[in-house]
């Protein structure tokens, strides 16, 4: 019986290491740094100026408190102002680089029904930074020049945005209105306060009337639950705090225009106080938005700071125990929320730089 001989074949196995090559790609710092910078620039949007908005408004609160109460230390006011200045300059430089390298994303943000409102935020931050400056007088030439430099973008955006609400069929206010639309109102009212501080009463009245009339229109539109409000993402619900930020800023502006915290200023203050209490009594409204950290959380800070500024002026005018208690409560809440959001931002730095899917999901509610 013949034996069967099975021929042996030699098999060669070649092992490749794609993972090691992938890691080797990022070991060179010269190659990694541009990639990180481009990622940051592509993720950045005007909503990040909420951070500088909170810092600048907090610096203004401390400056006001130190001015009215000489026994308070002035060092926190100086530190906050320089921190706000550094943050604002950094964000402005980064956004300027984004305009150069990612102009298409900037155009998309300019056309977005939510993102366009936050293009006012850099100018608001600059105006608050100017008003809280420790060594700059309102009647100086430098102050007035910077005021017009920061107010010009607000008036330009007003012409564009409000003009669309009047004339463009696909961008009527009933379709485009959302809580973030109140940022444009706050911009005009902050500018009105700055003009009144310089003694330009007519200019201040013009900006105040422009802001308050549009606030009433936006408030009524959102109050009626028209289509625009139904397209607001859950993650941006902290922006609902702008409902009381606008009348609080209006009260502050009217205080400087009239020279006293009169009946009109008190009415706006009470309105903002009522809306604040209404929001606080409905915590389920914000329950879904606080599950994961987002830069929108900074929207909790600066509206309450504006309300605290109002309570300070109200306490100076009324001078009773209730007004003093309101001032203490809102100033304490403002400082605690500011510190809390700052600590959360430091602890979630990596998540802060992620690309925001909200601003790039659609250019208008109709597109959904």
Automatic annotation (TrEMBL):
Keyword ATP-binding included in the entry's annotation: no
Membrane-crossing segments per the record: 80-106, 118-136, 198-223, 235-257, 263-285, 297-316, 322-345
Transmembrane as UniProt keyword: yes
Any single Pfam family the record assigns to this protein: SLAC1
Membrane topology: Multi-pass membrane protein
GO cellular component: plasma membrane
Record keywords, A-Z: Cell membrane, Ion transport, Membrane, Transmembrane, Transmembrane helix, Transport
Any Gene Ontology biological process: intracellular monoatomic ion homeostasis
Alphabetized GO MF terms: voltage-gated monoatomic anion channel activity
UniProt subcellular location: Cell membrane
InterPro entries listed in its UniProt record: SLAC/SLAH, SLAC1/Mae1/Ssu1/TehA, Voltage-dep_anion_channel_sf
Family according to the record: Belongs to the SLAC1 S-type anion channel family.
Subunit structure: Homotrimer.
Function: Slow, weak voltage-dependent S-type anion efflux channel involved in maintenance of anion homeostasis.
Protein name: S-type anion channel SLAH4
Organism this protein belongs to: Raphanus sativus (Radish)
Taxonomic lineage of the native organism: Eukaryota, Viridiplantae, Streptophyta, Embryophyta, Tracheophyta
Gene this chain is encoded by: LOC108826108
């Amino acid at each position: 019986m013949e034996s069967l001989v099975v021929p042996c074949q030699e098999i060669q196995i070649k092992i490749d290491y794609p993972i090691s090559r992938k890691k080797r790609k990022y070991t060179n710092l010269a190659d990694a740094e541009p990639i990180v910078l481009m990622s940051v620039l592509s993720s950045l949007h005007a909503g990040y100026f909420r951070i500088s908005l909170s810092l600048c408004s907090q610096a203004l609160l401390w400056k006001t408190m130190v001015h009215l109460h000489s026994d308070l230390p002035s060092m926190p006011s100086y530190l906050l102002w320089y921190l706000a200045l550094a943050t604002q300059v950094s964000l402005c430089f980064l956004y300027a680089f984004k305009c150069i390298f990612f102009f298409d994303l900037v155009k998309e943000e300019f056309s977005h029904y939510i993102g366009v409102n936050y293009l006012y935020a850099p100018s608001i931050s600059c105006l608050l930074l100017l008003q809280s400056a420790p060594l700059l007088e309102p009647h100086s030439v430098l102050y007035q020049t910077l005021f017009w430099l920061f107010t010009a973008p607000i008036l330009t955006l007003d012409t564009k945005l409000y003009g669309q609400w009047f004339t463009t069929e696909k961008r009527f206010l009933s379709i485009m209105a959302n809580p973030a639309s109140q940022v444009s109102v706050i911009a005009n009212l902050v500018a009105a306060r700055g003009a009144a501080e310089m003694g330009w009463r007519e200019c201040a009245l013009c900006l105040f009337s422009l802001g308050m009339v549009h606030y009433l229109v936006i408030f009524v539109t959102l109050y009626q639950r028209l289509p625009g409000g139904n397209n607001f993402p859950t993650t941006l619900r902290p922006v609902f705090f702008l409902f009381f930020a606008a009348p609080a800023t209006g009260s502050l502006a009217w205080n400087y225009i009239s020279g006293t915290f009169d009946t009109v200023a008190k009415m706006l203050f009470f309105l903002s106080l009522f809306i604040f209490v209404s929001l606080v009594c409905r915590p389920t409204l914000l329950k879904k938005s606080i599950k994961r950290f987002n830069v929108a959380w900074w929207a909790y800070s600066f509206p309450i700071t504006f309300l605290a500024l109002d309570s300070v002026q109200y306490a100076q005018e009324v001078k009773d125990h209730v007004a003093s208690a309101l001032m203490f409560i809102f100033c304490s809440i403002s400082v605690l929320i500011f510190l809390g959001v700052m600590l959360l931002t430091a602890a979630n730095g990596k998540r802060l730089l992620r690309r925001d899917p909200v601003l790039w999901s659609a250019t208008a509610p109709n597109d959904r």
